[in-house]
Backbone:
């Protein structure tokens, strides 16, 4: 499978439950490494854009953490699953188009097929990063269990993957999080 973007030096695939802090962690890493060095890629971006086009919705409002997005979440999940069944790499291919930075942070890896696609396309430069947070921490960030969402493959597809290359604990201890980010940044810099 030929990659559609440039050749990255490192691809970090971030996963975790809703409100675990995946976006917070990837944005913190990008701010420290620099946008010229590091791209944050979101698999949900092309999914939401295509879904909005096909359903006549406001794409920008689907990108934020609003009730607007939440009202369409279940149907977006179903629709996205149909697209992935037809082509497991459908959204992966879209996000790597025209990316020029050497470090890619995929902020919302949710399925084994996502990991498989990146490993097949980019091989040994691909690493997995699991962001974990206690239910209490997630609830403090606004998480409420939603049947059909929090028990769907989009949230649970990587629960039994086994070992991740990296695990970032984001329970609310800022100093501990900072130490983990520094360790990961050192690793990233060693790959450049």
Residues:
């Amino acid at each position: 499978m030929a990659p559609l973007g440039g050749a990255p030096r490192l691809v970090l695939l971030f996963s975790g439950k809703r409100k675990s802090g995946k976006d917070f962690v990837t944005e913190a890493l990008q701010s420290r490494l620099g946008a010229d060095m590091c791209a944050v890629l979101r698999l949900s971006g092309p999914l939401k854009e295509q879904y909005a086009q096909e359903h006549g919705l406001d794409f920008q409002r689907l990108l934020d953490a609003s009730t607007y997005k939440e009202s369409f979440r279940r149907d977006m999940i179903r629709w996205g699953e149909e697209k992935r069944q037809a082509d497991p790499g459908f959204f992966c291919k879209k996000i790597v188009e025209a990316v020029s930075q050497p470090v890619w942070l995929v902020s919302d890896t949710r399925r084994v097929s996502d990991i498989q696609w990146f490993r097949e396309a980019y091989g040994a430069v691909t690493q997995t990063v699991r962001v974990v947070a206690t239910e209490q921490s997630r609830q403090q960030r606004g998480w409420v269990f939603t049947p059909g969402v929090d028990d769907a493959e989009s949230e649970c597809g990587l629960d039994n993957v086994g070992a991740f290359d990296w695990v970032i604990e984001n329970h609310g201890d800022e100093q501990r999080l900072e130490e983990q980010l520094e360790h990961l940044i050192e690793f990233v810099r060693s790959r450049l």
User: Anything to note?
Assistant: The chain has nine helices and five strands.
